[in-house]
Amino acid sequence: MNTIALVVGSSGIIGSNLAQELISQGWTTYGLARNPNRNVENLQPVAADLLSPESLQTALENIAPTHVFFTSWMRQETEAENIRVNSLMVRNLLDALSPKKSVQHVALVTGLKHYLGPFEAYAKDGFLPETPLREEHPRLNIENFYYAQEDEVYAAAERDGFTWSIHRPHTVIGKAVGNLMNLGTTLAVYATICKETGRQFQWPGSEAQWNGLSDVTDARVLAKHLVWATTTEAARNEAFNVVNGEYFRWNKLWKQLAEWFGVEPVGFDGTIHPLEAEIANDGPLWREIAEKFNLAEPDLNRLASAWHTDLDLGRPIEVMTDMTKSRKLGFHVYQKTDESFFDLFEQLRQDRLIP
């Protein structure tokens, strides 16, 4: 089978890990981004602007992918703009590929905001689902750019005759620089700042998240899940949750993370302490740390996405994600969550992104 993958968003956490997985399995793999990832061996970079049909037509002129993996999005000021821009990116790409008649399957990565609501109404009263979250839960009665992206895939699939899969990870843990949502690296940067300044490693979130059960998605698990669904007939035209496969409590994991960095952990003390405010003025400090330890990235904002970490850790409910649907169809990859974080920290240290 001659499989040609187009990974859209190849510079991000999800896309870069997926590209490595595809290449390791022998796929011809193209990575599309505004600034393509050139650090993955044998990934063929494609520079294009998803908001420009002309740019896409030129960039994809000689590329006819059999499988498309859409892992990209652009954050806007309002959900209405999120919907307009992010659905347009999907539509432009699939319109550009349509005349080629080469696409057999499209995999779209969204996430748990499918169940918890968009940023403007995220996990707020009126939008709190029952847990564990299951794929059969109906859409919320509120606008959501994930729904708009799905609808673009469904419409193009009906037009062009390809199959599809929707993938809904929880918080994705993995390495990327300049990524919009990066909890693992954000916490590594925060812990590093605490270590250098003698600050306490203060839990920034809610009591419900501190004491409740939660889960996350290792980027390597998600990569395997994407390839599995794309190559498994029973998984076609289906939506799937995808997480590590175990539940944990932050009140234990927080202490483990603190121990790894050698900092003093402080748990929930009755008040939420937003991380965005905690590190808001630490840009110059991070530059000093980067110079002191000869780090590769002196820009704090290229590593930390505290706004997103605050959204995740500040939720008023525990969040558990059901994986039964994938398990019954044969996906049995499992990942221990503390090792997801520790593996990431080791990689960040190896790549000189933290001391």
From TrEMBL:
Q: Which SUPFAM superfamilies does this UniProt record tie to the protein?
A: NAD(P)-binding Rossmann-fold domains
Which residues are in the PRISE-like Rossmann-fold domain?
Answer: 66-355
CDD domains the UniProt entry points to:
5beta-POR_like_SDR_a (cd08948)
Task: Note the Gene3D superfamilies from the entry.
Answer: NAD(P)-binding Rossmann-like Domain
InterPro entries per the UniProt record, alphabetical: NAD(P)-bd_dom_sf, PRISE-like_Rossmann-fold
User: What is the protein name stated in its UniProt record?
Assistant: NAD-dependent dehydratase
Question: In the record, what lineage is assigned to the organism producing the protein?
Answer: Bacteria, Pseudomonadati, Bacteroidota, Cytophagia, Cytophagales
